[in-house]
What we know:
It is a single chain. By secondary structure, the protein is an alpha/beta fold. The chain has seven helices and twelve strands. The chain has helices at residues 9-25, 52-64, 104-112, 116-121, 138-150, 197-206, 217-220, and strands spanning 46-50, 70-77, 82-89, 94-95, 100-101, 122-128, 156-162, 168-174, 179-182, 186-190, 225-227, 233-236. It is globular and about 60 Å long.
Amino acid sequence: MPRPIIFTEEMKQRAKEDFAEMLDSVKMTEGKFSYNKSYSYENSNAIIWVTAEAYKKILALVMDFTDEVGWHGSVSRLNYCEFVIEDIFVYPQEVTGSTVTTDREKYQKWLYELDDNLFSKIRMQGHSHVNMGVNPSGTDENHREKILGQLEENMFYIFMIFNKSLNVHTIIYDMENNILYEDDDVELRFMGEENTDEFLSDAKEKVQKKTHNNKNKKQEIEAYDIYDLRGERVWEF
């Protein structure tokens, strides 16, 4: 479920009350105790739209490189919980099969050469994990903490990890609405797929799973009918 990023005044007051209530009833068996409380929202999940151009570039980077590779994405906010990744940009980097490192001077030079409009839209960092899982490494988590520390209250930032199996790990820090979305809290959609809804609905009516009457071995074999362009059956398997 989506979670808060910043402790609000309301949350602080609620935590104080919960902590005080716990102190009234706690019994310490070893002279110590711990307090742990998690917070989440009941609101709807986030949606990340990806343009066809951006997705083609992500696929090319993930599939064509045998080493880990990183990139930035230009992103716009569509509304409260929807974002669109418009394009992908590769920055100067040195890579191995499991690491991406940047030279600070080269990276800053590349970043500052972007025009102001594009610079303000660089709100996504993605990288590949090649043939590994997409769980973030300790280095990934440290990088996220640094970026989060730089975000102002009206900003957002997206982190994504892909592998060659096209598994995806996603985190969105939405500072403006104080929401952290992660994995199951995020729906990934592709620009243009909204036009396939009618097509898929029609296809599902036409494509039905074959049912078998297992009376003999012959009936266990699925039948395939081949038709010519006139619709006449010319072969059956």
